[in-house]
Amino acid sequence: MDKLKAIQYFLAATQAGSLSAAARQQNVSLQAVAKLVGALEAQLGTKLFQRGSRGLALTADGVQYAEACAPLLAQLQAADDGLRQARQRPQGTLVIGGTPFFLQHFVVPALPAFHANHPDLTIDLRTVVHLEEAAARECDLLALHGWFEAGDWVRRELPVMPQVTAATSAYWKRYGMPRHPSDLADHNCLCYRNPYGKLLDLWRYGQTGKQGHVVEQVVVRGWLHSNHRDHLLELALGGAGVMRIAHVSGHVDPTRGLLVPVLLDWEVLDPPPLALYFRPELRRTLRLRVFADFVAARCADLAQQTTALGQSSVDSRPAWHHGSSRRASSWLTQR
After folding, report:
1. Roughly how many angstroms between the first and final C-alpha of the chain, as a whole number?
2. ∠ CA 167-111-79 to the nearest 5 degrees?
3. Are residues 325 and 201 in the same domain?
4. Closest to 306 in 3D by CA, of 184, 210, 174, 162
5. What domain count does the chain have?
6. Cα dihedral sign for 320, 322, 325, 331?
7. Which of 101, 147, 204, 304 could crosslink 269 through cysteines, CB 3.0-4.6 Å?
């Protein structure tokens, strides 16, 4: 007796409600299904079905056996599918949307290596900052910073990459390095406006010491605001101001004359979460899966490289995120 085939026929009959329906589903004869299910019952020494005028009904032993076999068969099928897909080559075009700064500084530099492993796959990059914009609907997969409601999208959270507060050594030499977060109130801080239109001018820091966990909140000011982090980066690299940036972005490196981080004994609070979003129907698509795994591995590698303090999870939205005010700092007066 082919026991695996017998269990497949048994579970098919359980789901379909009859041996004939199971035979049609398995594309075999009714006699073949009946023979193997009967042989399975004989080997087990028990009846799995009660056969009556209204069709099949599981016995108590049948219920127990079906509950035990179904997940095992599903695992076997998943193993077969995984091995089959591993031998396939992903191909076609994958439309990727994402936050411009993340794509430019974290994804694009690693794409040549990805292409070398998957030469038959074409990547079409699109700039997307919000799940609700029209461009998002044209994408197969999105990589976005921010607190978004996933809605119909499947969400896959990525590792949090801690941020630091940084400027060039020339800027710090001219204006002085802050020793405490409150000192930032006297600096030209380059503020980001998030996809919801809110200016992030409330910079929060945390520190754990003898006094317990202390949180410092600073309302910062500067002469430039932008909803594109590359604008802020350009000015920061030119020595024009201070910005908050991921420690592993490639621009925080005082040994190369780039941005010099300060306040490293303070944790930068409220870094926006980073996640991948994709349509449920594409979940098992090989080209999407290999790219999603590539981005996740890239973020995990970068997160392990940082020496900055960081949060392990940022699922909950900060208090300033709520409300319709145009500035995060407005939350301080609304409490």
Report:
1. 73
2. 125
3. yes
4. 162
5. 3
6. negative
7. 204
User: Are 325 and 223 in a shared domain?
Assistant: yes
How far is residue 27's CA from residue 40's CA, in Å, rounded to a whole number?
20
16 and 66 inside one domain: yes
Q: Summarize pLDDT for 59-102 with one digit per residue, the tens.
A: 899 899 899 998 888 888 877 776 666 567 888 899 999 999 88
In whole angstroms, give the CA distance from residue 79 to residue 68.
18
184 shares its domain with 325: yes
Cβ atoms of 9 and 26 within 8 Å: the answer is yes
- Over residues 253-271, the pLDDT tens digits come to 776 778 999 999 999 998 8
Is residue 40 a contact partner of residue 7, using CB atoms and an 8 Å limit? yes
Cα→Cα distances 181→189, 264, 271, Å: 12, 11, 16
**Token pair listed for 64:** 């127990």
Distance from C-alpha of 81 to C-alpha of 293, rounded to nearest angstrom: 17
Q: Please list, residue by residue across 83-114, b when 16 or more beta carbons sit within 10 angstroms of its beta carbon and e when fewer do.
A: eeeeeeebeeebebbbbebbbbbbbeeeeeeb
Residues 152, 167: one domain?
no
Sorted by sequence, the CB contacts under 8 Å of residue 100 that are 6+ apart come out as 127, 129, 228, 229, 230
Name the residue among 274, 273, 271, 282 with its Cα closest to residue 153: 282
CATH, residue 153: 3.40.190.10
Task: State which residues form the domain around 15.
Answer: 3-86
Does one domain contain both 286 and 189? no
Long-range contacts of 61-64 (CB under 8 A, 24+ apart): 62/14
How far, in Å, CA of 72 to CA of 78, rounded? Answer: 10
* pLDDT tens digit sequence for 150-198: 888 999 988 877 889 999 999 999 999 999 999 999 999 999 998 888 8
Rounded Cα–Cα distance for residues 43 and 45 (Å): 5
**pTM above 0.70?**
no
